[in-house]
Amino acid sequence: MMNSAAGPAPAIRTDGLTVVRGGRTVLHGLDLTVPRGSVTGLLGPSGCGKSTLLRAIVGVQRTAGGSVEVLGRPAGAAELRERVGYVTQAPSVYGDLTVAENLAYFAAVLGAPRTDPARVVEQVGLTGHEHDTAGRLSGGQRARVSLAAALLGTPELLILDEPTVGLDPVLRQDLWRLFRGLADDGATLLVSSHVMDEATRCDSLLLMREGRLLAHDTPAALLAATGADDIDGAFLALVAGGTPAPVESPR
């Protein structure tokens, strides 16, 4: 939806988002807004609800209350399929197909240009592995094939769930350089991680604990507000405070 006065809708907006699984509340009425063309880090310990939030944004998570809007449309709307790329924690590729065959298949499903597989292979650093069977690749390489598939068709929004887990420091640096380049070209990225040192690479941070947002602000603002030396310290300071800090989308 476009608003001529206010400009385009944000990339992501949730209002009172609540998820209940097995009688337990996993997400507690989350309100957040992610602007377009930004890299937002979703940080928090394992089990805090990060993956559940990402699934809700993509539209594959049953919700118990609230709403989720993506690129101005309800999450999961059919017209978002080609506009949103999603990388799960577990590599989502066919193990009995080669890298090239996987990407050719996903490109056909998305209606992406036939030249796209070669482009994304180079972007994620898999040149030379095109004819390797995905099931014989290392875990990190399979994760990169999943990322390559998500990049097909140049989506406007990328939802990345722990994309750098198991990768060596050099490759992690290369991927973060890629993420920044995508954002500079106008894409929006929401990247989950439990590695706090990746926080400095983001424009803004969503800090989560036990299904609640502790804070949403820029790394510099979080450090200033808590007096901490790093994001680890800021997170611990917010937890020790007993109540979440005011959650405001950074301008």
Could you outline the blueprint of secondary structure elements for this entry?
Elements: E1 2-3, E2 7-8, E3 12-21, E4 24-34, E5 39-43, H1 50-58, E6 65-70, E7 73-74, E8 84-87, H2 99-110, H3 116-123, H4 139-151, E9 157-161, H5 169-184, E10 188-193, E11 204-209, E12 212-217, H6 219-226, H7 231-240
Parallel strand pairs: 5-10, 5-11, 8-9, 9-10
Antiparallel strand pairs: 1-2, 3-4, 3-6, 6-7, 11-12
Helix pairs in contact: 3-4, 6-7
Could you please describe the fold and organization of this structure?
This protein has 251 residues and is of the alpha/beta class. The protein has seven helices and twelve strands. It has helices spanning 50-58, 99-110, 116-123, 139-151, 169-184, 219-226, 231-240, and strands at 2-3, 7-8, 12-21, 24-34, 39-43, 65-70, 73-74, 84-87, 157-161, 188-193, 204-209, 212-217. The strands form three sheets. Strands 8-9-10-5-11-12 form a six-stranded mixed sheet, with helices on both faces. It has a four-stranded antiparallel sheet with strand order 4-3-6-7, with helices on one face. Strands 1-2 form a two-stranded antiparallel ribbon. Strand 9 (157-161), helix 5 (169-184) and strand 10 (188-193) form a beta-alpha-beta unit. Helix 3 crosses helix 4 (139-151) and helix 6 crosses helix 7. The longest helix has 16 residues, at 169-184. It starts with a strand and ends in an 11-residue tail after the last helix.
